[in-house]
Structure formats: C-alpha cells, structure tokens
Amino acid sequence: MIGFFKSRNSHWLGEEGFWAISGEYEFLLTKAGSNWQITSVKLNAKGEEGSRDVLAEAPKHAKDNLDARESLKVSYQ
Asked: Which domain of life does this protein belong to (predicted)?
C-alpha cells in the first residue's frame, strides 16, 4: 500500500539562515500481522526557498543545541 502526505518543511539557523522545501512524502506500507508498517519514505520535492547552506551549517550547532535542551529537562525522583 502507498500513502501520501503533502508538506512544507522550514529550517532556520539563527537569524539569517533559512531553507524550506515543499513537496509530497510517499510512504510504502507493508502489512505486519494486524498492523501496518512503514517500509520506506521518499520526499518528492516540488519547490525550494532559501539556501541549502543551512544543511551544511546545522551539524556544527547540533551539540550546543542538544546541551541547551538537556539543561532544561526536569527530573522527578
């Protein structure tokens, strides 16, 4: 079975970095017992805005972003 989902995904990096892609996700589903399982996902791109440079820069900030989010967690014991 194949399912589709239209989407627009915006990616921001600071004040200046921006890239967006729009299109349709195509999901391949396989019956697994009484459930359905996603076996593949493909984005059929229809349009883009901004700069793909955001994709190269984002990993450089990942550790700092993760550390900042981790510091906000509340632990209940």
From this structure: Bacteria
